Amino acid sequence: MCLCDCLTQHINPLSHHSMVGETKMKKVLKRYSRVVTLVLLVLALSMVTVQGVGGDYPVVISVGSADRVMFAPHTSSLADGNWIRLSGGMTVDLPSISFVYDGPDITYGRSGVTLKMYQSLIPDLTYPLDTHQVYKKGDSVTAEFLGESALGEKTVSFMLLQLSSLSEIKDVLDEGFLGAMATLLDSLVLIQPITLDSTGDGTYSFKAPNAGDYILVVAEIDIRFPNLSDSKIYIYSATPVEVVDYTLSVSVDSTVEKGDTLNVISTLDTSSDSYTHVVAMIKKSEYSANIILETAGSIPSTNLYLNGEIMAEGDLFTDFYTGIMDQSDLTVALIEEKLMTAFGSIAFGHTPATQTGTISLSTSSLST
Prior knowledge:
By secondary structure, the chain is α+β, with helices and mostly antiparallel strands. It folds into 2 domains: 7-34 and 246-362, no CATH class; 50-93 and 105-244, no CATH class. 20% of the residues lie in helices and 41% in strands. Strands 1, 2, 4, 6, 7, 9, 11, 12, 14 and 15 form a 10-stranded mixed sheet that branches. Strands 8-5-19-20-21 form a 5-stranded mixed sheet. A hairpin with an 8-residue loop joins strand 19 (288-294) and strand 20 (303-306). Helix 3 runs antiparallel to helix 4. Mean pLDDT is 72; it is low at 1-38, 48-55, 172-179 and 316-329.
């Protein structure tokens, strides 16, 4: 039996947002599912990229006839592919993430704002990082932008934005350019100009804010006065930043025979109330994420899949999959179902506890 060597990390995200009672459990699981979807959307959008350096942008938001928001090119290379690498806090092992865009050139228009994606500029990609960081309030966060050499000596802005809901992504498209700027400013937690070195790299460190869901963006903002509507934003990279309420330490044996029970001892760093501790064990060889953005060129035909499990359907920015997003339907059983669909055979368990709980995982149905 191959135990996933990042078992602690699998457990931590499910347990960071614990709760008291069934109602609070649903609220917490809803938030966790929203975070997962947000991470996938941000990474998927970041991976909609073009190979190599050039003047063409694979994703462009236009207002009227003018391009206003441009998503810059990436490559699969970490060293110069316009990616953000985080450090500090706690490390979460990521699955191997690949991205496929299956569809034609598309143009989504609404309220005078148009989103354009160019199929010829979107190759299949593999996300070059295998870990991500999670933070508690006050932790030191270091963000390293690894840019292409063409960005050398350019001054960019590191911006931390808080998203209170996924609808704020939709607002960027709905409100027009000035409305989108207002949304960004309302969500802005910090902004710091950084001059990149000769190779296009730059680093910024800050303290993690209050618990919540954030996106760190590296961008060049070209503000035009007095006509703000003529301004442009060049987004070079974006990555999710998750600041959690609690963390969970885990004690577990490194091996187990198939058919035996694996006992997981989890300890939450809070001393009051009762919480639900949730554990999922995924076979290491199955721990991968194949993200497919599929469309026939219209909003109703656009779907986002993770390992064949639909994460968003219809209007990608508004009608998120109700099986995940609807609080009234969200239960531990549904989370287990979604994990099984995405990753195949898993061991899953949960238990109510205060600070320390023991969860027994059955291994009889797992593959070796």
